[in-house]
Design brief:
- The complex is a heterotrimer.
- By secondary structure, chain A is α+β, with helices and mostly antiparallel strands.
- Chain A contains 5 helices and 4 strands.
- In chain A, a hairpin with a 2-residue loop joins strand 1 (101-111) and strand 2 (114-121).
- The N and C termini of chain A lie far apart (66 Å).
- Chain B is elongated.
- By secondary structure, chain B is of the alpha+beta class.
- The longest helix of chain B has 19 residues, at 2-20.
- Chain B contains 5 helices and 23 strands.
- Chain B folds into 2 domains: 2-170 and 308-314, no CATH class; 184-293, Jelly Rolls, CATH 2.60.120.
- By secondary structure, chain C is an alpha+beta fold.
- Chain C folds into 2 domains: 2-45; 48-150.
- Chain C is 61% helix and 20% strand.
- In chain C, helix 3 packs antiparallel against helix 4.
- Classes of the chains: A alpha+beta, B alpha+beta, C alpha+beta.
- Chains in contact: A-B, A-C, B-C.
- Chain A binds chain B through residues 16, 23, 27-28, 31-32, 35-37, 39-40, 43-44, 47-48, 51-52, 54-55, 58-60, 62-65, 88-89, 92, 96-98, and chain B through 13, 24, 27-28, 32-33, 36, 40, 43, 47, 87-91, 157-168, 174, 176, 207, 209, 241, 243-246, 261, 302, 304-307.
């Protein structure tokens, strides 16, 4: 009598159980470790960047040290070098709002019909999945004078675009 | 031959698994996306929308005063309640937030329906699990003696989508004075005199920006209320912010510069009766120029906003 | 069966190779599909330019208030009317905004129609202005014509 088949059936059952357990384990643990897919993380990062800029623009001046317009009005018109930002006030406020993230800030403005872009906060080179947020602010002679900035406004108003690039380490 | 048989058996087994246990595969794809959407949508409507209420005759965004006729729940503060949008997204109104918590407690079904935190499967409503919390420095914010955490907690091994937003949260009232124009106490230019009309229910916060320093030892010395000296930490807390910094606890006699800010938090229990109180702040080498009898806390009152995180989790 | 397995096992190996191939391809496609659908749906969240549109309208509201103030101020020192000053400043503002947004491939046009009563006079001061706003990034077209802005109480 050949009762090898009994053993093989048991073996098969054992193997099936092992595979099922492995698959279950992997799916469960992966959902714990990566609760969101990558695109959701991108949405989250971009949203954080826009939140930081929006908040700094709409906040009343006493809530945070200086709002976005006040920070940029005080710019000394110089480019930033690595770790040496030319908008220190904006840098310190962003670092508290965007904890655990790295960021660069560029500002763009129009002068005599030309678009000029300057680097004002430089913390490194953004990675591939960095998110970008932009917000436009308006500088006037009044805001520049109040913040001791070096802007020279040709007409009464200067539109400036603040571009914030945020990425995770 | 055996091999072919084996492969086909495995394929059939896989096919059966996909057919009858779809949750394994769905959780990794469509289901998670729906959760992500729900979290994103909820965070957007809470942070950026002022909400809406209407009955047969009236409607505007002040739903916190008409909770029985809420159409849409939103927490953003709004200056112009007749327009449907707000010019100040990301600024969270305290009154709306308190009503929001109240609504989640009193009528959870309505709350879930208004926020759309459910999915319809074959016409049947399946509620999502959710947790909406407001955090400052990683701790839940406490307003009106209740923590601003709404919803349950995540079970083990469940799929969850999370959205974090940076917001400005209204936490109470503040009076901001420019130190250069603050009124002095009669006869002593180093003492600022502020009147507060009682009673109050919330802590009194006074912020003084810009100082007129007149010597090298500029510092804050002491505070007194109706001529009785107040105790630091017991009666009040004081924090200082430099031009490029955040508020940190202030210990006398730390130096104060012209463009520093001081924030004084006065315990509400001190101002409990229905009279006017005189708060005297004594400084050294700082002079106040205003020569009226006192500066008024109540005339200068504004809403106090502090940065916080809004975390929406859906599962 | 016996003659099939005799000396023709090569056929079976090829056959099983095929079966394996197809099953693998089928599985790969299944996984891929879920990933693509995830990509598309969450990408749609990012694609709608809600931040841009909000930035343009709220900035325009803020700027118009200031432009009006400045126009009234300039009227005291130059010989142009408040309306003329307003339109000159608004044109400057619109051009700067258009250039800034063109810098990243988005088209913004802001105009303040002159002929059809875009400025409401109230005791010779401007109280309400009308602004036409359009935005286009190739995927989404937005227009608000007119956006009515209260510039002075």
């Amino acid at each position: 009598m050949d009762d090898k088949a009994q053993l093989q059936t048991l073996e098969g059952l054992g193997a099936a159980l092992l595979i099922t357990m492995t698959i279950l384990f992997i799916t469960q643990s992966s959902t714990v470790m990566t609760p969101q897919n990558e695109m959701m993380l991108d949405v989250q990062l971009e949203q954080m960047a826009y939140d930081a800029l929006t908040l700094m623009d709409v906040a009343p001046s006493y809530a945070i040290a200086a709002n976005l317009t006040e920070c940029v009005s005080g710019w000394n018109m110089e480019d930033a070098t690595m770790g040496e930002s030319t908008l220190p006030l904006l840098d310190s406020e962003l670092s508290t709002l965007l904890q655990g993230l790295l960021y660069n800030v560029d500002i763009s403005y129009v002068q005599n019909g030309n678009l000029i872009t300057n680097n004002t906060i430089l913390h490194g080179h953004p990675t591939e999945d960095a998110a970008v947020a932009r917000r436009t602010i308006m500088l006037t002679n009044h805001t520049v004078a109040a913040a001791n900035g070096n802007w020279s406004l040709a007409s009464g108003l200067q539109m400036v675009e603040v571009r914030l690039t945020v990425w995770q380490i | 031959m055996d091999f072919l048989l084996g492969v086909s058996l495995v394929l059939i087994a896989v096919g059966f698994t996909v057919q009858f246990v779809p949750s394994i595969f769905l959780s990794g794809s469509a289901g998670e996306d729906k959760l992500g959407y729900a979290a994103y949508r909820t965070s957007c409507i809470l942070a950026e929308d002022p909400g809406w209420w209407s009955n047969n005759s009236e409607n505007d965004t002040s739903w916190e005063y008409h909770t029985e006729n809420v159409q849409r729940i939103g927490l953003a503060m709004d200056d112009d309640i007749k327009s449907r949008l707000t010019e100040t997204p990301n600024m969270i109104s305290k009154d709306k937030l308190i009503q929001f918590k109240e609504l989640s407690r009193s009528n959870e079904n309505e709350f879930i329906r208004k926020l759309g935190l459910f999915d319809s499967i074959n016409g049947k409503q399946m509620n999502y699990g959710y947790n909406i919390s407001f955090l400052r420095d990683g701790q839940p914010v406490i307003l009106n003696n209740s923590t601003m955490v709404i919803g349950g907690s995540l079970g083990l091994g469940q799929n969850m989508a999370k959205m974090t937003r940076i917001v400005l949260l209204e936490t109470g009232n503040i009076s901001v004075f420019d130190g250069r124009y603050l009124n002095r106490y009669a006869g002593n230019e180093n003492i600022a005199n502020i009147s507060i009309i009682g009673p109050v229910t919330e802590n009194i916060t006074i912020q003084i920006t810009n100082f007129n320093t007149s010597g090298p030892n500029a510092a804050f010395t002491s505070a007194s209320l109706d001529d009785s000296i107040l105790l630091q930490s017991g009666n009040y807390t004081i924090q200082k912010r430099s031009l490029y910094g955040n508020f940190d606890p202030y210990v006398s006699p730390d130096g104060i510069l012209d463009n520093d800010s001081l924030m004084i938090d006065l315990n509400s229990s001190l101002i409990s009766s229905n009279t006017s109180y005189q708060l005297k702040l004594t400084f050294e080498d700082i002079s106040f120029s205003g020569s009226s009898h006192f500066s008024s806390y109540n005339d200068n009152i504004e809403k106090r906003y502090e940065p916080a995180l809004l975390v929406v989790e859906v599962w | 069966m016996a003659d099939l397995t005799d000396n023709t096992s090569g056929q079976l190996i090829i056959l099983s190779g095929f079966v394996l191939c197809f099953s693998l391809v089928a599985l790969a496609m299944l996984v891929n599909q879920t990933m693509i659908s995830g990509y598309h749906s969450s990408n749609a969240v990012l694609e709608f330019p809600k931040h841009q549109i909000r930035d343009i309208t709220s900035q325009t509201r803020e700027s118009c208030v200031y432009i009006t103030e400045l126009a009234i101020e300039l009227n005291q020192s130059n010989n142009k009317s408040i309306e003329e000053n307003y339109h000159l400043l608004f044109k400057d503002y619109a051009e700067q905004m258009a250039t800034l947004y063109a810098g990243h491939g988005e088209e913004v046009t802001l105009s303040s129609p002159i002929d059809n009563g875009s400025i409401t006079n109230n005791n010779l001061n401007i109280s309400t202005v009308w602004v036409n706003i359009t935005y286009n990034n190739g995927m989404t077209y937005y227009s608000s014509e007119p956006e009515i802005i209260e510039v002075r109480a």
